[in-house]
């Protein structure tokens, strides 16, 4: 058990994955000498050499497309996309190629490729640097989509993602990179399980990635008002751990889901649809969603009002409870 | 300010050095359309056995094409894309590889696929709609088709980089069309391959058309020149001359194999048929153009050469008989292709456990059982 | 009022739009002499010339990206994407550029661009030629996403889309291109309204695009079993016409939504979430979704079982009614 | 079979014609780093007024850069990307355009923007996070920035095609970085522009680095050669020599304006600062390299030339004073920039009515009112 930041945990997780298997290669823009713009790959090129930690030309389709070729050759590539908003030039390679390859091959060709995406807002960045685009990938059959919310999960989930024979889109909440936390030596959950972060009997608050901390803060505030909020960290956005999710929803009968992505067709829509379908009789109130508004990400001086913050979550909890 | 010289502004055209796009180079040609060796060809290496092998390859490829067309017309295939006219490009290039070299085709490389040992039926299966990938790509070192244009060139480049890392001296060859070269992916691949000195040959079958779009609406300059600009070694060859294609590809492959970096080959050829069985080329091109290319037919050309070189009728009848067999057997096998069953597919999307998939699979089985119950 | 196929209706709609405004230009692969692989632009190049009906190089990002530039110059481009599965190379230009341009410009720069996508399966095509990817675009703030289900709507909606100062992703259900129907001279609805296609008191069946016909067929079968199914054609997938949708849901208390896209995070998820949130007390049963399974599109010989057909819809209606 | 010749297989390298990537051409240079006219320069047109204008442009641009850096360090800007060292490339090129020519910048063209009449504060506003687009692009004919690399080159190409259709003889100039040339979009744009004979100039500021990625990891060959391969006329110029950049750009612009088709200019320059205020270039490059380029500073170079040509101190003090004013006033104006209010933004996404947006706007207002009520 050690204390470290999420950024460091990812760095150590990648290092461990590379040490464990020399077929693991890391590729992306500026990840070598610079260590990536967030320093997540810091020191890796020194340790593993420029053949395993590759500064690529500046082209996301190229990064993903050549990673697919490397995977066909037996490698396990980990791609870094520099910022969330720059993954779209690689969209075809992710959605048409990476995601479908195994199914196209009749289940024979494995695609052990990880796509790391620093995601989300809250760091005062310029446009295209604060997006939450997990829903595009979660809607895509053939991909797995996960997001870490703590240093502990960051450390273990990145290794589990590398070990997976399926392609994994790995979202890293960039505004949590500098948050510290304990990291246990062994993982307590597999890559695809949700975690009940806080027990609670009155209402279930579902979050993932950067919003988990917001959810926990809201739960604390609510507690001081005597409301007992259960907080669930999805961890895996696709597949959803429906077992945990439905059990939690049933236990409280009230669900609020919070995420930074646009509300319309955000993962909250799937959570609401799935929970409602499977737990209809147990629900005391409709599943409420607290997402970003359906605007393109605003100039950063307006992001605090744009992102779902503690107050909006508390408001939704109240609406759910008073339904 | 008075000390400044005040020279009248000269025509900028004269004062700076401009690099003008150079015209295309003249394609390498060894066999003229009437089957004679050209001057270049007379200096070229010629391997008897290879010539007859390549004739057979091309001939059988064309027979497969014709039979597939028939099958499509009879409703037995959903679609078919003919290689008609491009046989020399495919055979000449694939025969210049070692069996261990890895090939990333586009979607029209049936004739090349046959050379790699794919069965005709495997080649049809995708177009009958029973599978997406119809053959064992590892065993044949011939990857399954990519229908999203140009996407395979990046896979090929990544694979080639992997070969290099592994210290293996195999090379990769990827096929790409003239139209596909307009895609960002193909240009990213050329650049990536160059930066990495990847052991890869980009083989462009420039068949002059991308569905209804002629080259002049697709690009300017010349494709092999573009590749040169990306830092690749590049060649242009008469794509209807199997002999020249083979030799040029060999040169390219040996360059790539020996660490010289990536190579681009532009094969000047022609799509004699419509784009696919759904296409009617008379809507956009003149029959006269096709006639011109008929006179450059790659199979006729090699046949004329072989006959002039003394290859006798027996050989040609043998090959023809083999073609009859192929046509006959592929028709039978095609009709017997096993159809896919949806319930089998749920387990073929992910390698690892997936609760949502499991729920859907269960739901599908439940639904099927209600259907049965209703009957 | 004339009878025509949906393909012809689109062709005539485009012609009318081009006649009405010479800033309307049409661009795409093989749309000139060939008239497009589905002949939707047939005859337009002859009539309006190669400057207004442009055969482009083979690159979807180029098509959308240059259309954006043309729009900045005052044109109203209509882009044709040859098949649904080939829109992804243009995804960045659609999602980061086209969708966001107006918001980025502070509401000043209009983007009157239409992206036509022949969509959906059921025609026995090879892979990448049968996809239903409307959810990606519907999740994207700044876009409008619509789909026509009848020749009448095809004729009028394409013209309304061209007239819109917002970017519109226009889905055309390719397997309905050959279906004939009446086309009135004037539109009865605006681009963003849902239509109640069939009145019914027992359960509401929501569909769009190719699934509307399936829904109507299912409703007919159900009628013969004495079940009165209301059928709603969404027409606009984004924005949803929530007024109509919620009113219908309230009127029957039971909702089933059907679409060809993957179920997980398909538009059915949004319909379910939205209806549940706003009509919770009126619902007798959870909203049920009938989508394609979350598999990449299978080989065509398996597509009949993959696509949501009449039997699966009837099954869901039954489950809803017996809830 | 015996009649076939059996020539031993010659080395393929000798039997075919290969096109090798040509090395880069030598950049056009009129002013040497020590401010003397080169031989090429002595034959070039020189316009006194233009020289002093360009000096002033470059000097003020650099002052803005420095002040913006200060503001960022003080927390008043979120980020800033300096043009330090690239002033000649920007000023020389933009000054070669007519005011009506339309410019699509990337994101580092502050110095060019100033020349187009953008105020320093407008240029800062985006980096302070108050707007995405800080100026009137229609009035200045200088589009707002594109942060998704290369995406603007396609918009520029489309716009240029529109100009051509409209029969207007304006041209488009778009700025692009060396790194961005690896993107599919940029290559698609080059091809598209060529096919359409579009009146556009692609101006590539090759500053040798893309964040930490040096040219040798970005591409092979030379960028202007690549453009040639796409069928564009292309130039390479010393990007730290405002005089040469201006003249070359004029040649390019006049070519494009007169219907000659698209042109590509590669300006050989250097990013003297880090990539942005968040970047520490010592992590990936040697100070020695920066020193070499310091000696080629574009502003010093022009100052030396002007002084040698007799421009006196008064001129330089005037410009310096102007720079002081600029620095002072931009600081004040920056701090006064109005902040965006979320509620205003709901109406700026769509031109037409949007029920879901209306619902969300109402929901947001309701939420705000509960907040107020709680206070
Ligand atoms: C990304 C993408 N866009 C569009 C298509 C549709 N399409 C299939 S083949 C084709 C023309 C291809 O031309 P070319 O590359 O010259 O190859 P050829 O068919 O001539 O062999 C087009 C436009 C596609 N398959 N992929
Ligand atoms: C599509 C995309 N990918 C990645 C980035 C992140 N990024 C911003 S600037 C930059 C380097 C750009 O280098 P270059 O094009 O040479 O321009 P320069 O910064 O040197 O002016 C990168 C990788 C981006 N903005 N867009
Ligand atoms: Mg072609
Ligand atoms: Mg650069």
Per-chain topology:
The complex is a heterotetramer, with two copies of chain A (323 residues) and two copies of chain B (375 residues).
Chain A: E1 2-5, H1 6-20, E2 24-28, H2 44-48, E3 53-55, H3 60-72, E4 76-80, H4 91-98, H5 101-104, E5 114-119, H6 134-138, E6 144-147, H7 151-163, E7 168-173, E8 180-183, E9 195-198, E10 203-207, H8 211-224, E11 229-233, E12 236-238, H9 242-252, E13 255-262, H10 267-279, E14 288-292, H11 303-306, H12 310-321
Parallel strand pairs in A: 2-3, 2-4, 4-5, 5-7, 6-7, 10-11, 10-13, 13-14
Antiparallel strand pairs in A: 1-8, 6-12, 9-11
Helix pairs in contact in A: 1-7, 3-4, 8-12, 9-10
Chain B: H1 12-15, H2 39-42, H3 48-73, H4 87-94, E1 102-104, H5 110-115, H6 120-128, H7 137-140, H8 151-166, E2 172-177, H9 184-195, E3 200-206, E4 209-210, E5 213-214, H10 215-218, H11 223-229, E6 233-238, H12 242-257, E7 263-268, H13 287-294, H14 298-308, H15 313-335, H16 342-345, H17 355-374
Parallel strand pairs in B: 1-2, 2-3, 3-7, 6-7
Antiparallel strand pairs in B: 4-5
Helix pairs in contact in B: 3-4, 3-14, 3-15, 4-12, 6-15, 8-9
The complex binds thiamine diphosphate (TPP) (2 copies) and magnesium ion (MG) (2 copies).
One thiamine diphosphate (TPP) sits between chains D (108, 147-149, 177-180, 207, 209-211, 271, 275) and A (29, 58, 82, 86, 89).
CATH architecture assignment of the largest domain in chain B: 3-Layer(aba) Sandwich
Strand content of chain A: 15-25%
The molecules bound to the chains, other than polymers, are: thiamine diphosphate, magnesium ion
Interface with most residues? B-D, 70 and 69 residues
Give a brief rundown of this model.
The complex is a heterotetramer, with two copies of chain A (323 residues) and two copies of chain B (375 residues). Chain A contains twelve helices and 14 strands.
Description:
The complex is a heterotetramer, with 2 copies of chain A (323 residues) and 2 copies of chain B (375 residues). Chain A is an alpha/beta fold and 323 residues long. Chain A has 12 helices and 14 strands. Chain A has helices at residues 6-20, 44-48, 60-72, 91-98, 101-104, 134-138, 151-163, 211-224, 242-252, 267-279, 303-306, 310-321; strands spanning 2-5, 24-28, 53-55, 76-80, 114-119, 144-147, 168-173, 180-183, 195-198, 203-207, 229-233, 236-238, 255-262, 288-292. In chain A, the strands form 3 sheets. In chain A, strands 3-2-4-5-7-6-12 form a 7-stranded mixed sheet, with helices on both faces. Chain A has a 5-stranded mixed sheet with strand order 9-11-10-13-14, with helices on both faces. Chain A has a two-stranded antiparallel sheet with strand order 1-8. In chain A, helix 1 packs parallel to helix 7 (151-163), helix 8 crosses helix 12 and helix 9 (242-252) crosses helix 10. The relative contact order of chain A is 0.12. With 375 residues, chain B is of the alpha/beta class. Chain B has 2 domains: 12-340, Rossmann fold (3-Layer(aba) Sandwich), CATH 3.40.50.970; 341-375. Chain B is built from 17 helices and 7 strands. Chain B has helices at residues 12-15, 39-42, 48-73, 87-94, 110-115, 120-128, 137-140, 151-166, 184-195, 215-218, 223-229, 242-257, 287-294, 298-308, 313-335, 342-345, 355-374; strands at residues 102-104, 172-177, 200-206, 209-210, 213-214, 233-238, 263-268. In chain B, helix 3 (48-73) packs across helix 4 and helix 3 runs antiparallel to helix 14. Chains in contact: A-B, A-C, A-D, B-C, B-D, C-D. At the A-C interface, helix 4, helix 6 and helix 10 of A face helix 4, helix 6 and helix 10 of C. One thiamine diphosphate (TPP) sits between chains D (108, 147-149, 177-180, 207, 209-211, 271, 275) and A (29, 58, 82, 86, 89).
């Amino acid at each position: 058990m050690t204390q470290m930041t999420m950024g460091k945990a990812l760095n150590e997780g990648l290092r461990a994955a590379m040490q464990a298997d020399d077929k693991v290669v890391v590729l992306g823009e500026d990840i070598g000498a610079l260590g990536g713009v967030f320093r997540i790959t810091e020191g890796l090129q020194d340790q593993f050499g420029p053949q395993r930690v590759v500064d690529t030309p500046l082209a996301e389709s190229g990064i993903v497309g050549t990673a697919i070729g490397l995977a066909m050759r037996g490698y396990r590539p980990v791609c870094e996309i520099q910022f969330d908003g720059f993954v779209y030039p690689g969209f075809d390679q992710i959605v048409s190629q990476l995601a479908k390859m195994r199914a196209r091959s009749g289940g024979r060709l494995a695609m052990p490729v990880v796509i790391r995406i620093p995601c989300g807002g809250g760091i005062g960045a310029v446009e295209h640097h604060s997006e939450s685009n997990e829903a595009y990938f979660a809607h895509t059959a053939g991909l797995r989509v996960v997001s870490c919310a703590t240093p502990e999960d960051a450390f273990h989930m990145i290794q589990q993602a590398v070990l997976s024979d399926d392609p994994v889109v790995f979202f890293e909440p960039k505004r949590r990179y500098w948050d510290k936390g304990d990291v246990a030596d062994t993982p307590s959950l597999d890559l695809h399980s949700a975690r009940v972060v806080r027990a609670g009997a009155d209402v279930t608050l579902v979050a993932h990635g950067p919003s988990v901390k917001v959810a926990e803060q809201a739960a604390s505030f609510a507690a001081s008002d005597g409301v007992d909020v259960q907080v669930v960290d999805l961890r895996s956005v696709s597949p959803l751990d429906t077992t945990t999710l439905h059990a939690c929803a049933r236990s409280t009968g009230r669900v609020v889901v919070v995420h930074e992505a646009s509300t319309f067709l955000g993962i909250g829509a799937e959570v609401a649809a799935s929970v409602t379908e499977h737990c209809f009789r147990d629900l005391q109130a409709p599943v409420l969603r607290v997402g970003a508004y359906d605007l393109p990400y605003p100039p950063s001086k307006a992001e605090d009002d744009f992102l779902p913050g503690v107050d909006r979550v508390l408001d939704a909890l109240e609406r759910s409870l008073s339904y | 300010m008075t000390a400044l010289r005040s020279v009248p502004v000269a025509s900028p055209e004269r004062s700076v050095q401009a690099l003008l796009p150079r015209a295309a180079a003249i394609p390498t040609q060894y066999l003229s359309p009437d089957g004679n060796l050209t001057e270049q060809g007379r200096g070229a290496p010629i391997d008897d056995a290879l010539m007859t092998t390549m004739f057979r390859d091309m001939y059988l490829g064309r027979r497969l094409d014709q039979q597939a067309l028939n099958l499509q017309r009879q409703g037995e295939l959903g679609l078919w894309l003919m290689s008609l006219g491009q046989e020399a490009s495919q055979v000449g290039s694939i025969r210049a590889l070692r069996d261990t070299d890895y090939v990333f085709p586009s979607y029209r490389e049936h004739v090349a696929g046959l050379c790699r040992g794919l069965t005709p039926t495997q080649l049809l299966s995708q177009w009958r709609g029973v599978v997406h990938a119809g053959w064992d790509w590892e065993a044949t070192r011939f990857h399954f088709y990519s229908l999203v244009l140009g996407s395979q060139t990046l896979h090929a480049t990544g694979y080639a980089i992997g070969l290099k890392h592994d210290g293996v001296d195999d090379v990769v060859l990827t096929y790409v069309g003239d139209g596909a070269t307009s895609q960002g992916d193909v240009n990213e691949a050329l650049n990536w391959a160059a930066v990495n000195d990847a052991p890869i040959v980009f083989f462009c079958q420039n068949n002059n058309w991308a569905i209804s779009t002629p080259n002049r609406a697709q690009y300017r300059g010349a494709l092999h020149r573009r590749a040169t600009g990306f830092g690749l070694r590049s060649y242009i060859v008469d794509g209807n001359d199997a002999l020249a294609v083979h030799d040029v590809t060999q040169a390219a492959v040996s360059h790539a194999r020996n660490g010289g970096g990536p190579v681009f080959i532009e094969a000047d050829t022609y799509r004699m048929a419509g784009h696919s069985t759904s296409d009617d080329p008379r809507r956009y091109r003149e029959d006269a153009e096709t006639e011109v290319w008929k006179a450059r037919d790659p199979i006729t050309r090699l046949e004329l050469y072989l006959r002039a070189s003394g290859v006798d009728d027996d050989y040609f009848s043998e090959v023809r008989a083999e073609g009859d067999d192929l046509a006959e057997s592929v028709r039978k096998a095609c009709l017997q292709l096993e159809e896919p069953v949806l319930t089998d597919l749920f387990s073929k999307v992910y390698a690892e456990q997936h609760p949502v998939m499991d729920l859907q699979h269960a739901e599908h089985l439940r639904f099927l059982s209600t259907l049965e119950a209703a009957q």
